[in-house]
């Protein structure tokens, strides 16, 4: 079955890669182009609608490799619906409420097809039965995930790459849990995202647009529900949160900042992780590669939680394996802390400006920037106390 996921991913990759240039030309022809924005990092107007190619890849591979049943039909129908809504937004700039209703409608299609969480297992709490609330909570979760992926789509290659990395991790976990269909679907998501990424990595010739980011969020949500949340494994809820830690943290910080300054949550700004990287001198490629590396570390931790035998069947810790698991988790936390520092959430530049000017009031902005850049390049942070 794992080989089937590889084949499905290759088909999705090929279709998405072949059609991405086609939809880019279509987008230019109908005027679905992302103009240069003050908060954006793109230097040229870029066609949108790349999500159409991602959908085509997922659709063809899904029809060929997913079982012909109600759940598969529901997943593909929901994918088609959210792609249409996203494409309309890319072309017409829909009102945020209309987009939200479209996301909710696609999520409802999934839930009505049986892609729903009614029970799950949570560490230290145990079995949780959602009963009648399962459908509503699943819809809310799917809408949240669509927006999380959408929020992260702000620099060339980021959303597609992070979704591909996440899909690989979810596929490994799903197959180990015996959730083969979810594993194949994850392979399809990975292949379609990578096929599009061929043209979206910096300098991008096409953007996925809302039709792509919402689609990837919905499909990853379906993978999570079918692949982990419907199991009794302790990885069920923790795994998705760890795998998607980077986009979740990005969204959380951005939303918190908008709430703090009483701005509409749906209104874009330049406070995302990738904007912070850019402001401290990182190129787009380096920004994306740092965020890829962070995502890989977190995804690796989630997979390790499933495979490292850190506890015995009696419930007691297996000392050696527990130490390894702890070391991996520390690595993930360390990577997060380092990048949070880099992203100025701890206000590195302000701190350095204050410290340098306390020592020498004549320190220039250029000297401050050079100090910060040197520390980021070497990874050696001086105390300047």
Helix content: over 70%
Rounded to an integer, what's the Rg over CA atoms? 22 Å
Mean pLDDT: 84
The overall number of domains is 2
> What characterizes the major β-sheet?
2 strands, antiparallel
Q: Indicate the structural class.
A: mainly alpha
Model description:
With 385 residues, this protein is mainly α. It folds into two domains: 2-273, no CATH class; 348-378, no CATH class. It is 70% helix and 3% strand. A two-stranded antiparallel sheet has the order 1-2. A hairpin with a 3-residue loop joins strand 3 (119-122) and strand 4. Helix 5 packs across helix 10 (245-260). The longest helix is centred in the first third of the chain and has 29 residues, at 2-30. The protein is globular. The N and C termini lie far apart (58 Å). The model has no long low-confidence stretch (mean pLDDT 84).
Can you give keywords for this protein?
two-stranded antiparallel ribbon, 2 domains, mainly alpha, 4 strands
Q: What would a concise description of this structure say?
A:
The protein is built from 15 helices and 4 strands. It has 385 residues and is mainly alpha-helical.
């Amino acid at each position: 079955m794992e080989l089937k996921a590889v084949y499905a991913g290759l088909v999705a990759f090929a279709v998405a890669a072949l059609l991405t240039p086609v939809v880019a030309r279509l987008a230019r022809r109908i005027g679905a182009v992302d103009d240069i924005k003050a908060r954006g990092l793109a230097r040229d107007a870029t066609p949108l609608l790349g999500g159409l190619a991602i959908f085509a890849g997922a659709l063809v591979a899904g029809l060929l490799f997913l079982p012909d049943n109600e759940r598969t039909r529901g997943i593909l129908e929901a994918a088609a619906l959210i792609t249409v809504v996203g494409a309309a937004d890319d072309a017409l700039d829909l009102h945020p409420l209309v987009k939200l209703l479209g996301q909710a409608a696609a999520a409802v299609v999934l839930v009505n097809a049986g892609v729903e969480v009614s029970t799950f297992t949570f560490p230290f709490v145990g079995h949780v039965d959602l009963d009648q609330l399962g459908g509503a909570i699943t819809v809310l979760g799917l809408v949240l995930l669509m927006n999380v992926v959408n929020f992260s789509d702000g620099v060339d290659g980021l959303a597609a790459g992070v979704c591909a990395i996440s899909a690989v991790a979810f596929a490994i976990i799903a197959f180990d849990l015996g959730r083969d269909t979810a594993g194949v679907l994850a392979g399809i998501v990975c292949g379609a995202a990578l096929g599009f990424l061929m043209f979206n990595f910096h300098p991008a010739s096409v953007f996925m647009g809302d039709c792509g980011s919402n689609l990837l969020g919905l499909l990853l949500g379906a993978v999570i529900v079918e692949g982990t949340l419907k199991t009794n494994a302790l990885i069920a809820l923790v795994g998705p949160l760890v795998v998607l830690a980077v986009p979740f943290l990005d969204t959380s910080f951005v939303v918190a900042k908008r709430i703090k300054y009483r701005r509409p949550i749906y209104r874009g700004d330049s406070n995302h992780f990738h904007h912070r990287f850019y402001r401290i001198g990182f190129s787009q490629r380096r920004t994306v590669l740092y965020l890829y590396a962070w995502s890989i570390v977190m995804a690796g931790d989630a997979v390790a939680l499933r495979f490292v035998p850190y506890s015995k069947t009696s419930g007691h810790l297996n000392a050696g394996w527990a130490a390894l698991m702890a070391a991996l988790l520390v690595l993930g936390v360390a990577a997060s802390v380092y990048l949070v520092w880099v992203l100025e959430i701890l206000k590195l530049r302000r701190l350095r400006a204050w410290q340098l000017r306390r020592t020498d009031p004549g320190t220039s902005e250029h000297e401050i920037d050079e100090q910060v850049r040197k520390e980021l390049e070497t990874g050696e942070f001086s105390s300047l106390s």
